């Protein structure tokens, strides 16, 4: 509904502009030949009223149109979030681009293109019909103007859409290359500046395609304006030399030439709207081809269940064949030298990586995929560039007291400002602090199963003792499996599983 009001307001805005042109051109001409008792008041009032309508409808068009644009953009973004929510992230930069600009480009088509074209078509039709009905000299020539506009617009659309296809491919390639370069950020300092520069993908071709689109729009506008002027010159020639002898004083003779003279003004916006259509098509295309692999989830697993592994292992380690039983609560240790496959095993248990062998929960196979609600704490917990609160809550609702409580339990009482910014551009946490922040997250999430990857790494003796006491207490009500090559003396486990490195 709002989209249609936007279009109507754009039409009103354009129509008022056109009416001002027609009335004022007639008024100027009429003044030149007006008799002494000519009433200047009425046309002046009409022009003023039209100007007010033009200004008012222009602002209203922006108000309604942009409000609608914002609503539509947020709706599209929510839909996109829903698609990405349970998906594996493969092309991070493409997903960011999709959220940041493709949804906006799709939403903007009503304001940017549809309303401009509707306004142009209606102005052309209304002016042609009005001039024909009023029998204004040369009225039929406005039809020729309409045909010229239509042909140039169609050609512009076709060329623009061809360029869009090229642009989508170029953008995809550029983003893939950028992802590769950004992925190697950790070793940039090891390279010379020349090596780094040589690696950077060039945006030159993208930029060239973008500018050729703008050039095309401008060229179309100039061709249209040129042909409109040519029509006007023909009319003037005809008026002077052939058809209208004896009618030289008729001020209505000027109406159609004035219309043609200013054709670029009242129809130019329709050409300028073309990039909005291109971006719309590009956005649609890009969202359609966005690589989204849905995350596979298992069937629902009881909140508290035993875990039985038989010949089980990560698909990345075909020789890994673990057979073990875990109660629904208690602390278990998975040990073994570095590279033995401890992290891979925990990730396979949680379903983060595909597995082989059998995984039973309470004696039932939940199927392949991620077990919802089970927590895997990475070896190096990810710290988001966000506030401490967001890093802890991950979008859930917790009170400040709950946050302070878990922070002091994991030995991070020094982080006492939930609004403090962490990560790049903010407070940088040490390796041990990251680890403890990860544990704090786990404590808030209340997961029935904790799979902790090297939780003691980077912690000093006192911190290890504090963490062991905490885990011991939490293991009373949940299953905790720790993968570690450090075995704190005070750790009391129900069982220990030692993995051997692959031969
Ligand atoms: N995505 C993967 N694809 C293929 N092989 C992998 C993958 N991830 C890890 N591996 C291999 O699996 C083996 C075990 O890795 P894993 O990280 O599980 O060892 P770990 O026992 O946790 O070692 P550490 O104690 O050093 O963390 C390694 O040889 C590694 O190369």
TrEMBL record:
Per the UniProt record, which residue ranges are transmembrane? 40-60, 120-141, 147-166, 221-240
Q: Which UniProt keywords apply?
A: ATP-binding, Membrane, Nucleotide-binding, Transmembrane, Transmembrane helix, Transport
- Primary localisation category: membrane
* Keyword DNA damage on entry: no
Q: Which residues form the ABC transmembrane type-1 domain?
A: 4-148
Q: Which residues form the ABC transporter domain?
A: 295-503
Reply yes or no: does the keyword Plastid apply: no
PROSITE patterns, alphabetized: ABC_TM1F, ABC_TRANSPORTER_1, ABC_TRANSPORTER_2, PROKAR_LIPOPROTEIN
Q: How does it sit in the membrane?
A: Multi-pass membrane protein
Cellular compartment(s): Cell membrane
Domain of life here? Bacteria
GO terms under cellular component:
plasma membrane
Q: Kindly provide the name given to this protein in its UniProt entry.
A: ABC transporter domain-containing protein
């Amino acid at each position: 509904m709002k989209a249609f009001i936007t279009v109507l307001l754009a039409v009103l805005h354009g129509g008022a502009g056109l009416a001002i042109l027609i009335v004022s051109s007639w008024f100027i001409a009429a003044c030149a030949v007006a008799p002494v008792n000519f009433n200047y008041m009425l046309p002046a009032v009409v022009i003023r009223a039209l100007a007010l309508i033009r200004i008012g409808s222009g602002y209203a068009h922006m108000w309604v149109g942009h409000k609608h644009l914002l609503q539509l953009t947020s709706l599209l973004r929510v839909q996109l979030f829903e698609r990405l929510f349970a998906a594996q992230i493969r092309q991070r930069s493409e997903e960011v681009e999709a959220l940041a600009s493709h949804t906006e480009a799709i939403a903007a088509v009503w304001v940017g293109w549809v309303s401009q074209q509707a306004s142009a078509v209606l102005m052309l039709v209304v002016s042609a019909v009005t001039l024909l009905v009023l029998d204004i000299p040369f009225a039929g020539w406005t039809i020729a103007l309409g045909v010229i506009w239509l042909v140039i617009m169609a050609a512009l659309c076709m060329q623009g859409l061809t360029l869009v296809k090229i642009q989508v491919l170029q953008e995809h390639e550029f983003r893939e290359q950028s992802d590769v370069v950004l992925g190697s950020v950790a070793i940039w300092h090891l390279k010379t500046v020349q090596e780094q520069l040589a690696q950077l993908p060039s945006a030159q071709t993208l930029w060239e395609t973008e500018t050729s689109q703008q050039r095309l729009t401008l060229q179309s506008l100039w061709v249209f304006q040129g042909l409109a002027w040519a029509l006007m010159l023909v009319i003037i020639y005809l008026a002077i030399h052939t058809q209208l002898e004896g009618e030289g004083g008729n001020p209505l003779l000027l109406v159609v030439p004035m219309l043609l003279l200013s054709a670029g003004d009242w129809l130019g916006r329709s050409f300028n709207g073309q990039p909005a259509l291109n971006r719309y098509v590009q956005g649609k295309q890009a969202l359609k081809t966005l690589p989204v692999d849905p995350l596979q989830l298992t069937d629902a697993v009881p909140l508290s269940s035993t875990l039985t592994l038989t010949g089980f292992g990560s698909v990345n380690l075909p020789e890994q064949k673990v057979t073990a039983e875990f109660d629904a609560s208690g602390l278990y240790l998975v040990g073994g030298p570095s590279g033995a496959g401890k992290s891979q095993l925990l990730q396979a248990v949680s379903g983060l990586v595909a597995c082989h062998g059998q995984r039973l929960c309470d004696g039932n196979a939940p199927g392949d995929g991620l077990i919802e609600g089970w927590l895997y704490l990475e070896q190096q917990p990810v710290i988001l560039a966000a506030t401490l609160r967001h890093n802890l809550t991950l979008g859930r609702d917790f009170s400040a007291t709950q946050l302070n409580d878990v922070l002091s339990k994991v030995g991070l009482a020094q982080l006492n400002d939930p609004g403090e910014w962490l990560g790049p551009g903010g407070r940088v946490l040490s390796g041990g602090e990251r680890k403890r922040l990860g544990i704090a997250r786990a404590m808030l999430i209340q997961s029935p199963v904790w799979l902790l990857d090297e939780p003691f790494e980077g912690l000093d003796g006192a911190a290890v003792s504090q963490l062991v006491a905490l885990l011991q207490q939490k293991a009373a009500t949940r299953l905790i499996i720790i993968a570690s090559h450090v075995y704190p003396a005070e750790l009391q486990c129900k069982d220990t599983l030692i993995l051997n490195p692959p031969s």
